[in-house]
Amino acid sequence: MKFDKDSLKIDAPRVTDELCREILHQVRGVLKKSGAVVGISGGIDSSVSAALCARALGPERVLGIMMPEKESAGESKTLAESLSKKFGFEAILENISGGLEGTGCYRRRDEAIRTVFPEYTPAEYKCKIVIPQNILEKDTFNFFNLTIDNEKGEVKSKRMPLQAYLQIVASSNLKQRLRMTTLYYHAEKRNWAVVGTGNKDEHEQGFFVKYGDGGADLKPIAHLFKIQVYQLAEYLGVPQEIIKRTPTTDTYSADVTQEEFFFGLDFYRMDMLWYAMEKNVPPEEAAAALDLTPEQVKKAYYNIDRKIKATEYLRMAPLEIKPAD
Amino acid sequence: MAAIEQGSIRTKVRGFITDTFLIGNDKIKLGDSDSFMQLGIVDSTGVLELASFIESEFGLTILDNEMVPENLDSIENIAKYVSKKVG
I need a labelling partner for A226 at 20 to 30 A (CA). Which of A121, A141, A246, B53 fits? Predict the structure, then answer.
């Protein structure tokens, strides 16, 4: 096959038609539900998912739910509102801060952060966790650093000890799990389906919370690369302020992009390299098309492959034991 | 800290890897120079578990720039890294 810079270009009108037919079939025909509930964050993936559902099912059969909490970016709500106005579906707001307080999300997370930075208080510092490396430049392990910063511009960063890391992740994941619970409340109240909004990058490399944002009845864009989601967004007419926004995790109080939190590479190169790897494109050929060296391509192939394998557990359904005959 | 024999480091690391990552997995026969990453034994959480074990067991601090396969991706590599670090 020929691999070049346009290899991931899609025929957006055709793909949109196919996706809409499939969404309609899955929601009405397979799941026997009459509408769809979508969590909308003001990000590109949830915007495209909601727009597709509105087109497939009719906007009157789609409910968008904004679920900010006290650490969410303020602009997320405005962006989600402009999306619902554009595509004509109802959008409601569910602030989940109280629920998160109830589960101890913030308290448990802050307690773990203080084992790494005793001076940390949420009033003075913001926090985030990041993968510190560029996967093209160094053959290294994927591990996470904890970073805190304050308004004075002080930034402190440390590799996390195991227990702190696990507690921070476990408590932060309560955010995604409470959002999933909220979506199912509204879906069950209407006998509608919950739509997952993860793309291929998130789904296959494990950038989601099991039974959190990974918990859904259908995942219509889970097979699409992020750069293909952008192409659909342009075609569908998603507001430009959403398309131009840098993808974030909306999980930590400090601003953190998905690239620095998890992927370690910009989406264009990540997706192109991944596609090349899937299609067994020789590293030399991929390198020439992407202005990289074959060594960088090999490192990226290796890193992507490792992430997919290491996160297999997240995509597994609960394991069952088959009784012996 | 006194120098530790590489043989002793290998024994301790093998015990940790077996107890932590290989219980219930009879398919993998781990050689001293086998790559943990290639065998799919250690993920991003596993790396932190392994680093925590090495730091506490051998009384050293692994710097971020030392978190590389050359130092940590096999029993042999860990033995060399630890003995150099504490020797």
Answer: A141
Instruction: Choose, out of B21, B44, B53, B56, the residue to mutate when testing the contact with A (most A CBs < 10 Å).
Output: B44
Q: What is the mean pLDDT of residues B37-51?
A: 84
- Would you state the pLDDT for residue A132? 64
Residue corresponding to tokens 């511009």 = A153
Which domain, by its residues, includes A252?
12-101+168-314
Q: Which pLDDT belongs to residue A131? A: 73
- Whether residues B69 and A139 touch (CB distance < 8 A) is answered with yes
Q: Does A190 touch chain B (CB under 8 A)?
A: no
Q: What is the DSSP letter of A61?
A: G
- Report d(CA A173, CA A314) in Å as an integer: 13
In angstroms, what separates the C-alpha of B49 from chain A's closest C-alpha?
A: 6
| Contact present, A205 and A304 (Cβ < 8 Å) | yes
Domain termination residue (choose one: A145, A167, A189): A167
Q: What is the pTM of this model?
A: 0.87
Q: Which residues of B touch A (CB under 8 A)?
A: 37, 40, 42-45, 47-49, 51-52, 64, 67-69, 72-73
Q: Show the low-confidence residues of chain A (pLDDT under 50).
A: none
Ramachandran class of A80: left when φ > 0, alpha when ψ lies in -120 to 50, beta otherwise: alpha
Q: What is the pLDDT of residue A319?
A: 95
Q: Is 0.85 exceeded by the ipTM? A: no
Distance of CA A161 to the CA centre of its chain: 25
Name the domain count of chain B: 1
